[in-house]
Structure formats: structure tokens, C-alpha cells
Write a structure and sequence with these properties.
It is a single chain. The chain has 275 residues and is mostly beta strands. The chain has one domain. 3% of the residues lie in helices and 56% in strands. The strands form two sheets. Strands 2, 3, 4, 5, 6, 7, 9, 10, 11, 12, 13, 14, 15 and 16 form a 14-stranded antiparallel β-sheet that branches. It is globular, with a radius of gyration of 19 Å.
Length: 275
């Protein structure tokens, strides 16, 4: 099965759940009306690790191997009153690697009902679906990681601004709530708030919503991708974990597959937040 992979990130506000205690964890979300932090110059730094594991002939999964050194990326709110193609009062998030390359811009509107992405720049709306070549897995992961933050399909670089309105979150967030995000007319994502749980951050723990993304294509459910965003009211996105399973391994000599299959796991973890 060929890869048509989306890395989709939710940069959005979160409203309160009145006295909500989750049956799975027993965590109580505070009674506070608060959206995802969108203060000007707020900055998040993420550490991203990518792993690959190979299935043997009996279908047993091997040990995860680190594909490349850890990468570090910066997400920053550069404007809270931006305008793009007639759309006004937008919040602009800028993404770049810590080295300063690969700047991607996304513009959002945070209303009382939804957090909506209005426009994007830094990649095109043309899909890139590279095959995994045994000789160069790092090149493949670089395509995937390019748009880990902020949200986006695996796109090719492009400086044009695209108006592509997509609802990222619907307010209020309640455990069990679901909503759809349409990418194309035949490709959409259903996001569901599964529960709340504690995740470590620096010297303590933070309460997070576990939001699962399920991918649907024109030929049905994508069972290869398992993706979770862990979002805190106080810190924003604390962790994202994406697993892409049962991908066929291809080579130049065997473009249709070698008969081997691999599993990718990509984790991005918050290591620093300012403001």
C-alpha cells in the first residue's frame, strides 16, 4: 500500500470542562475559561525523535532504531493582528528548525466556537508521497518531519499563501467529543477527545487531553496511522506521537516492494515554553 501520509497538528484554544473527572484517570480539569495560549511572542521548543522497526517473516516486530539524531524545532506566535488576502485579525504561528531553516507560517482565527486555520505559507498544496528507499530512510523522514509543526500534509516547499480554511478544534472540548477536518473532498480526519491524563514536563506533571486522529481516504479508513496529540490548558501541545504501521519497504531495484514491512514512530515532545 502506497503512503498518503498526513501530519496534522492542532494549535488551538481549549475551553473548560466544569468539574469534569475522567473515569480513566480521575484527573479533574480546573473550572476556568481559558483558550490555548495565544499571547504575542509565546514560543514553544520541541524535541522530535524518529524511529523505525522492521517486521520479520513471521510478522514479529523488531526493536525500534533511532533513524537520525534528535531534531529541535521552534514554534512562535509572531503576530496576533495579521491580515492575509482580506482576512483580518489573524494569529500567525511561525515554525522553523532551531537551525533557522524551513520557516512555515500558518494563520488562525480563535472564535468562541472554533479554532480555525485560515491560511498557510511555506509549502504547497501538492501532495508529496515519497517511497521508503532502504538506502535512504533519513531522506524519507525529512519529508515527514518538515511539517510536524504546525499542521500540514507532507507538502513540497512553496512561498505562496494558500487560503485553506480548516476547523482545528471545536469549543468547548469535552471528553468523548469528535469533529471532522476536511483536507480534500475525498480525504478527511476525525479527531476525538479520548480522555485526560498526566504527562511529565520538566520537574512535574501536567494535565493533558489525549486527542486521537483517525484518517479516512476515498477508499476508506487508513488503518496504518495512529496519531495522538496531548494538549494542556496551561502549556499547549505537550506531546505528539504518530505511528505509521506496516509500510512496504522499497528499493530502486524493487520499487513495488521488497516483501519487507516496517513501522515508523515519530514523537515530538515539549522541552521549553516561554510566556
Amino acid at each position: 500500500m502506497k503512503l498518503g501520509f498526513i501530519l496534522f497538528i492542532a494549535f488551538a484554544g481549549l475551553l473548560f470542562i466544569l468539574g469534569c473527572k475522567d473515569a480513566k484517570t480521575g484527573i479533574v480539569i480546573p473550572e476556568t475559561v481559558e483558550k490555548y495560549p495565544t499571547t504575542l511572542n509565546t514560543e514553544w521548543e520541541y524535541e522530535t525523535a524518529s524511529y523505525v522497526a522492521k517486521y520479520d517473516k513471521n510478522g514479529n516486530l523488531g526493536i525500534d532504531s533511532l533513524l537520525q539524531p534528535m531534531t529541535y524545532s521552534i514554534l512562535k506566535i509572531s503576530s496576533v493582528n495579521d491580515s492575509v488576502n482580506g482576512e483580518r485579525n489573524l494569529i500567525r504561528f511561525d515554525f522553523s528548525y532551531k537551525s533557522g531553516v524551513s520557516v512555515v507560517k500558518n494563520w488562525y482565527r480563535n472564535s468562541d466556537n472554533t479554532f480555525e486555520r485560515i491560511a498557510s505559507s511555506g509549502y504547497s498544496e501538492v501532495w508529496v508521497t515519497p517511497k521508503l528507499k532502504k538506502s535512504d530512510p533519513i531522506h524519507f523522514l525529512q519529508h515527514l518531519l518538515r511539517n510536524t509543526f504546525p499542521d500540514g500534509v507532507v507538502f513540497s516547499p512553496n512561498d505562496s499563501v494558500y487560503i485553506n480554511k480548516r476547523i482545528i478544534l471545536q469549543y468547548p472540548l469535552v471528553v468523548g467529543k469528535s469533529w471532522d477536518v476536511f483536507i480534500t473532498k475525498d480525504f478527511f480526519i476525525t479527531r476525538t477527545i479520548l480522555w485526560t491524563q498526566l504527562l511529565p514536563y520538566r520537574n512535574g506533571n501536567v494535565n493533558c487531553y489525549d486527542i486521537k486522529s483517525i484518517y479516512y481516504r476515498d477508499n476508506g479508513l487508513d488503518r496504518q496511522t495512529d496519531e495522538h496529540d496531548f494538549i494542556s490548558l496551561e502549556y499547549g501541545l505537550v506531546k505528539r506521537e504518530t505511528i505509521i504501521d506496516s509500510l512496504p519497504l522499497t528499493t530502486v531495484e524493487n520499487p513495488d516492494g521488497t516483501g519487507d514491512f516496517v513501522r515508523f514512530k515519530i514523537t515530538s515532545t515539549l522541552v521549553r515554553k516561554s510566556n
